[in-house]
Write a structure and sequence with these properties.
By secondary structure, the protein is α+β, with helices and mostly antiparallel strands. It has helices at residues 2-12, 32-41, 50-58, 82-85, 87-90, 100-106, and strands at residues 27-30, 62-66, 72-73, 94-98, 109-112.
Length: 113
């Protein structure tokens, strides 16, 4: 699944853009700032982080864990309406979460950052 998603992301961004691998060893749950830090390390300019971030959400690589429910939710559960999915983050009431299918392949840790 990781490899297939990496290929899809390469089609959208430049060939040779394997930025999904920047998340190797990342925590399972992260703030928006932490996710953006990984994207900056991958070479995305600070002023252009929304596009790759939203794409990771759209592909289901990242979900949002609402603090009220404690349950991670992913784009496919919202009919890929990522704006609706991202609402808790705008209210500082949620964190990004790596989808479980990618966690093992990326050797994600359980600590939140």
């Amino acid at each position: 699944m990781l490899l297939a998603t990496a290929f899809e992301l390469k089609d959208v961004f430049s060939p040779g853009s394997d930025f999904i691998y920047e998340f190797l060893g990342c925590p399972e749950r992260m703030t928006r700032d932490k996710v953006c830090e990984y994207l900056r390390h991958a070479g995305f300019p600070s002023e252009n982080l929304d596009e790759p971030l939203k794409l990771l959400v759209w592909f289901g690589f990242l979900g949002v864990e609402d603090q009220k429910t404690g349950e991670p939710r992913y784009a496919y559960q919202f009919g890929h309406d990522i704006n609706k999915l991202l609402v808790p983050l705008g209210k500082n009431a949620g964190t990004f979460v790596i989808h479980p299918v990618f966690r093992k392949a990326l050797e994600c840790g359980s600590a939140t950052h």
